[in-house]
Amino acid sequence: MLDLIPYQPAYLLQLRELFIEHLESAKTLAQAEYSVTIDVPNTIERELTDEALAKLYSPPTGALMLARIDREIVGCAAIKQLEPQICELCRMYVKPAYRRQGVARALLERSIAIAQSAHYRAMRLDTPRFASAAHQLYADYEFVEIPPYSGTKIPLDRQAYWLYMERSL
């Protein structure tokens, strides 16, 4: 049974594993598709401290959710504030063995609901161009392509390899 739970420090090890798996997967695909390298260790260390997690993803302007199936953490998603009325969906990831089971949809729906309850008027995201299944999911939820936005963490020299999307809330 799928449960969506808020992040708690007791889950830091599982969250770290998800972030590493997510970034390593993106790194491998980005290297294969575009000959672009992603700096996984620096990204992990920059975001996975108690202080960074609290700053980036704490209510009322942010959230960090974990998807759990039978006591196993199988996915995550986060929202953080970009501007007073605009948030960003980030770190959405589901382990490959649990894909196509509604986990990503559940995480996305909960993220949208949290953003709406926080009175954001729009949600943005960036996603690698090779992530076509994710693009379809976002399109199903009325995300549309936009130019790169202020606040994206994608370096300027790599932005052409990413797709940027927004949804009104």
Could you give a quick summary of the protein structure above?
The protein is α+β, with helices and mostly antiparallel strands. The protein has one domain (2-121): Aminopeptidase (3-Layer(aba) Sandwich).
Structure description:
- The protein has helices at 12-34, 40-47, 50-57, 103-117, 132-140; strands at 2-6, 63-69, 72-83, 86-94, 122-128, 144-146, 162-168.
- By secondary structure, the protein is of the alpha+beta class.
- The protein has a seven-stranded mixed beta sheet, sandwiched between helices.
- The longest helix has 23 residues, at 12-34.
- It contains five helices and seven strands; from the N terminus they run E-H-H-H-E-E-E-H-E-H-E-E.
- The model has no long low-confidence stretch (mean pLDDT 86).
- It has a single domain (2-121), classed as Aminopeptidase (3-Layer(aba) Sandwich), CATH 3.40.630.30.
The total number of structural domains is 1
Low-confidence stretches: none
The total count of strands amounts to 7
CATH superfamily: Gcn5-related N-acetyltransferase (GNAT)
The proportion of strand residues reads: 25-35%
Helices and strands, with pairings:
Layout: E1 2-6, H1 12-34, H2 40-47, H3 50-57, E2 63-69, E3 72-83, E4 86-94, H4 103-117, E5 122-128, H5 132-140, E6 144-146, E7 162-168
Parallel strand pairs: 4-5
Antiparallel strand pairs: 1-2, 2-3, 3-4, 5-7, 6-7
Protein name: N-acetyltransferase domain-containing protein
Organism: Chamaesiphon polymorphus CCALA 037
Domain N-acetyltransferase: 13-169
